[in-house]
Design the sequence.
């Protein structure tokens, strides 16, 4: 059953008086989550204690919930599993990808990739000590660098700063034609737009659940391995819950079947309860309808800002087909301007050096919210509210 | 302020009619946890949304809570951080340890180590491809294998099956005398007995918080790095939250100060709320008093079982100084016997091939519980209740 967005909006708690355009950083609280988490704490952990691993299906949830996410990203059933953090899943996927092309040396990424992906790749390359090279190019130059020396193309589909969207299908095909492996980070894609991993032939994908998926602060990550690789990869992070028989306590590691081998340690049961509540909403969302509404909202926002705020320059692609579900504007005093917006109840965020970033999440943002956001930003710019010294002190986390 | 154990017992919810001797696998629910988690879900995530990272101190909790755990394990302040799973922390610690002794090839562990530690080591060794060797010996032979070719001594202090306790101080000193690094897994030590990492001169330590520490299913792990190494180690899992300036979004990784560099990705905020509530109890516990009470309970249990159940043979060391806070008995029909105990409300667990394992956790188990446990086991053995086919089918998780 599919819900319309007026219905989904009623399922979220957004604080009184707040226009929350930061669901691309941390999604807001679904109203059903508190009771769902309380049930896990009190009825499951409290009453079942150790037997909750079976009786409350805690042990099965990473795969079960993986499949529910899989529908949103076009993955084959049984090929997504939830766990760990996105950085850990990047490491796992990249290590497995490199293993599949042992004679090649280049990992290609772009400067719009999220820094942690790049840091994890650097750390892995250093550990492996096999002369691998991480090549970081500008986003628009990626296609030109896909050559026969490429081992792994490692990209984030939607740029966390600008919202620019890579062509996953074309780049994956180009990587494959060059004999390379394609690995995609869906941090700003999952729940933001339809993804078709199977249709694109992606080899590996990873993502997080605390942004558009609304599973809460510190919610676990997920990983996808294409069916053709799933029984071949040898996990670098070979933990006991990825073992073929974890409770046999063998001293030798034997990888579990398919995606199960990408599990590592004990799943985060309280975070999974929050993910379950969040997915109860997603289970009822049509991804094409979501995309259409996202484009409608971002177009409304861009038109509104450009009509009223000449000092802000669009940092996202103008063509909606080329961007995800966020819109960024560049402004020299962007940090202070964002603080002034926040003081008026409009929550977006700032990314260095000058990016004001706004996420458009149709599940709980509608046209009226966008109109109010445009009005607040207009006021901040018109009255030069960013020029208040109180807004110019950097917070530690933005 | 220190609480007595009658007072701590009142702070836990143990299901009606249950004697829970499995706190060494998953600790029971502290009564204050539900409200603490609900506060994080509703008041923090719900009302602060993204600003909770600062306003609710989510970002600081991994270090803050690390210090509270640090007191229980004798770590120097500022040298423990919480995050990820124990398997991931084993990988991180071992990779860093190996880096400190680049010319050596042997990692020594014992067959009583938890399998996931061994699997993670195998995976790391395979990734590094530097001809490292994992040498697995019997627990009593570890000291004889500490030679000048040793790179890292990697042990779990308390054996998960038998409760046998290594002499951390002596083995660490012996490893250091041989020029090696000593790394300890405290999964069955933290909250079970006093640990003195600083006094032993341990180089690295890791542990989990869902067993004796009672932080709930899937609670995060912790890692300790000795102050002399903390600013030298280069993390293999170099995630953005271990970066010196995570929110500068630099493309180059620069490790954070000291233990901060062992952070990887976004901390699991809901699990941390449960850890906070659990540590509120631990903050009031004297570890020497805990150890004395643990020995009293385990001695009572052993004496009771040996007086009434001649078919059970003690699989734990008889000398309380040589064991942790659990007692194991070997019995050929141990799996079915444990199921019969569970059916009567006595929860312990079974570990292949024949180990019936019982954890003694003074925070919520007292002498009366132990007497009841002895009576139930006596009844199971006396009436051969394990001979019921209903108890002989293996569950997937025990």
Sequence:
């Amino acid at each position: 059953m599919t819900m319309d967005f007026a219905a989904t909006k009623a399922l979220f708690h957004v604080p009184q008086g707040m226009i929350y355009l930061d669901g691309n950083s941390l999604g807001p609280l679904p109203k059903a989550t508190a009771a769902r988490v309380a049930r896990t704490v009190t009825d499951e952990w409290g009453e079942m204690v150790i037997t909750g691993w079976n009786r409350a299906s805690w042990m099965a949830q990473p795969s079960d919930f993986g499949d529910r996410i899989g529908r949103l990203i076009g993955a084959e059933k049984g090929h997504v599993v939830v766990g760990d953090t996105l950085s850990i899943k990047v490491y796992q996927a990249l290590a497995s990808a490199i293993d599949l092309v042992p004679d090649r040396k280049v990992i290609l990424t772009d400067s719009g990739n999220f820094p942690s992906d790049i840091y994890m790749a650097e750390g892995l390359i250093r550990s492996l000590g096999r002369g691998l090279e991480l090549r970081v190019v500008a986003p628009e130059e990626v296609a030109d660098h896909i050559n026969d020396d490429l081992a792994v193309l490692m990209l984030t589909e939607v740029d966390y700063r600008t919202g620019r969207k890579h062509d996953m299908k074309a780049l994956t095909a180009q990587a494959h034609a060059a004999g390379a492996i394609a690995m995609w980070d869906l941090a700003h894609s999952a729940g933001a737009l339809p993804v078709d991993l199977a249709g694109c032939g992606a080899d590996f994908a990873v993502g997080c659940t605390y942004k558009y998926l609304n599973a809460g602060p510190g919610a676990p990550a997920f990983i996808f391995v294409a069916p053709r690789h799933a029984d071949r990869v040898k996990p670098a992070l070979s933990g006991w819950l990825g073992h073929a028989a974890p409770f046999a306590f063998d001293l030798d590691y034997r990888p579990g079947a398919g995606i199960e081998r990408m599990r590592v340690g004990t799943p985060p049961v309280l975070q999974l309860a929050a993910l379950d509540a969040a997915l109860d909403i997603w289970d009822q969302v049509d991804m094409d309808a979501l995309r259409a509404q996202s484009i409608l909202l971002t177009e409304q926002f861009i038109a509104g800002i450009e009509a009223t705020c000449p000092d802000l320059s669009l940092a996202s692609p103008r063509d909606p087909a080329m961007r995800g579900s966020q819109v960024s504007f560049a402004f020299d005093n962007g940090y202070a301007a964002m603080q002034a917006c926040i003081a008026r109840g409009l929550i977006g965020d700032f990314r260095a050096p000058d990016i004001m970033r706004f996420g458009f999440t149709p599940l709980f943002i509608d046209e009226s919210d966008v109109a109010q956001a445009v009005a607040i930003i207009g006021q901040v710019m018109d009255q030069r509210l960013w020029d208040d010294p109180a807004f110019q002190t950097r917070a530690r986390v933005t």
Remarks:
- Chain A has two domains: 5-30+286-391, 34-282.
- Chain A touches chain B through 92 residues (CB under 8 Å).
- The domain at 5-30+286-391 of chain A is CATH 3.90.1150.10 (Aspartate Aminotransferase, domain 1).
